[in-house]
Amino acid sequence: MYSEHKDLVAFFGDDNPSFQASLERTLPKVLLLAAASEFEVAVCQHIRDYAIAASTDKKLAIMIDRWVLTRQYHRLFDWESRHAGPLWGALGEDFKRHMKSRLKEDEDLKESLDAFLELGRLRNELVHQDYANYVLLKTSAEIFGMYETAMRFIEALPQILATQLEENPD
């Protein structure tokens, strides 16, 4: 999609500067929504897959799908504060502490999660603050760069969800 957008902007070139300017205002918004939408589908699918793999009783996966993921995706993250604490906390306090520590140690994971959360935050601003008049202060290239960075978090999520913590005997 990004490549097609670049070609479209290039097509208008210097011959139609008003069209080109309009595209350069509109296309980053479209890319932002596309990225956020793709990520929502992917995160929900990773959680579904984990629930299916982790339980022999498929009713648990159905319950998670119906009661946790359906129309609840945006509650898994604190978009405004840009952290994934609600998701980590939903998996238990030990897991939340584990992820907090892991993110301190793994700069690549932290960078990719930060990009993911920033795209989610920007998406919320865009859709809740008058899409047509909202001024997105990012170019298509910047949105695409954030998308590529955030994709590393999306790709790491199945392994993150499957992380088994050591039992601490009391």
How would you name the oligomeric state of the polypeptide chains in this document?
single chain
Mean of residue pLDDT?
A: 91
Termini, distance in Å?
53 Å
Strand content: under 5%
Sequence of secondary-structure elements = HHHHHHH
DSSP summary: helix tally: 7
Largest sheet: none
Radius of gyration: 19 Å
Give the tally of β-strands.
0
Rough outline = elongated
Find the structural class using helix and strand composition: mainly alpha
- Estimated helix fraction: over 70%
Low-confidence stretches: none
Structure description:
This protein is mostly helical and 170 residues long. It has seven helices and no strands. The chain has helices at residues 2-12, 17-54, 58-69, 85-90, 93-105, 107-128, 140-161. It is elongated. The N and C termini lie far apart (53 Å). The mean pLDDT is 91.
Q: What are the main properties of this structure?
A:
elongated; 7 helices; 170 residues; mainly alpha
Draw up the topology in text.
Layout: H1 2-12, H2 17-54, H3 58-69, H4 85-90, H5 93-105, H6 107-128, H7 140-161
Helix pairs in contact: 1-2, 2-3, 2-6, 2-7, 6-7
Quick summary:
This protein is an all-alpha fold.
